[in-house]
Amino acid sequence: MPVKRFKPITPGRRFMTVDTFEALTRDEPEKALLVKYKQKAGRNNQGRRSMRYRGGGHKKRYRLIDFKRDKDGIPARVASIEYDPIRSAYISLVVYADGEKRYILAPDGIQVGDEILSGPDAPIKTGNALPLEKIPVGTMIHNIELWPGRGGQLVRAAGTYAQIVGREGKFTIIKLPSGEIRKVYSKCKATIGRVSNPDHNQIVIGKAGRHRWMGRRPRTRAVVMNPVDHPMGGGEGGKHKAHHPQSRSGLYAKGKKTRNPRKPTSVFIIRRRGETERQKA
User: Fold this and answer.
1) In DSSP terms, which residues pair with 93 in a beta bridge?
2) Taking residues 125-131, what's their average pLDDT?
3) Which of 204, 17, 22, 210 is nearest to 6 (CA)?
4) What CATH number labels 223-272?
5) For the chain, percent helix, then strand, then coil, each to nearest 5?
6) Would you state the pLDDT for residue 1?
7) Cα 78 to Cα 113: distance, rounded to the nearest angstrom
8) Can you say how many angstroms the Cα of residue 13 is from the centroid of all Cα atoms in its chain?
9) What is the pLDDT of residues 129-176, one digit of tens each?
């Protein structure tokens, strides 16, 4: 979708861009598919703060999204394309032939009135959900399951897509948006097409107040803290390079690998993101 730019009448307006929302067809969400969304503001399950600089923001309501796409063989019609404050992608309200309504992630290019279908016999068409074993090599997909029946977990952000690059026994090899190539069980489902709102990465926040609307509070830089507060704190004037970039707990940044090498799912990863064929060899 195109983005709207403003005349620079204030410093905050100079580079700010917003979505035009031209693709949306409905303003009010389906009430039966709404639940309360309580702001946690970076708290854990004990109510204690586990992440700093979170809080405030506009009130939201959560839309129940059908990531499983488990109504196989029942056609559905796209009733609307709507905004979701929880995610970067748009969502679509679909009405099944038996009268049930559900929200799904809106694929890019889908229109009101289009018919979608899920199941192994569904045609290769944007918005249809099929097992990976039924999708041809080279097809763009999104909302990919990691375990059959669990629901889509991969490739759900705005404008993203993965690509099927091959098959190996009971696995399908896919290339993710990050560049990682991994194996996924061929029985897992995925949706055809790319996710909607591909111009989301062109949005420029423009001013601090807009971040506050999103629930982000002002962040204090580590180098201006005291040594008791952060490993990178202390020093005269707060501007020196004596410390290696690291987190508050001392975990190195700037390239240190943090994934556990003994993680069981590492066997499914063929090539990691940012890794070339020569590095893999």
Assistant:
1) 80, 103
2) 96
3) 17
4) 4.10.950.10
5) 10, 25, 60
6) 60
7) 5
8) 27
9) 999 999 999 999 999 999 999 999 999 999 999 999 999 999 999 999
Q: Are 255 and 164 in contact (CB under 8 A)?
A: no
- What tokens were used for 15? 């580079």
Asked: is 3-200 a CATH 2.40.50.140 domain? The reply is yes
Ranges of H-type helices in the chain: 208-213, 277-280
pLDDT of residue 128: 97
| Cα 217 from Cα 240, distance rounded (Å) | 26
Q: Are 172 and 210 spatial neighbours (Cβ–Cβ below 8 Å)?
A: no
Give residue-wise pLDDT tens across range 208-257.
999 999 999 999 998 889 999 999 888 876 566 667 899 999 988 888 88
* H/E stretch holding 269: strand 269-271
3-state DSSP assignment of residue 120: coil
Q: Tell me what the mean pLDDT of segment 88-111 comes to.
A: 96
The domain limits of the chain are: 3-200, 223-272
How many other C-beta atoms lie within 10 A of the C-beta of residue 69?
27
Here the tokens at position 75 are 């056609």
Task: Give 171's strand partners.
Answer: 168, 185
pLDDT at residue 241 in the model = 66
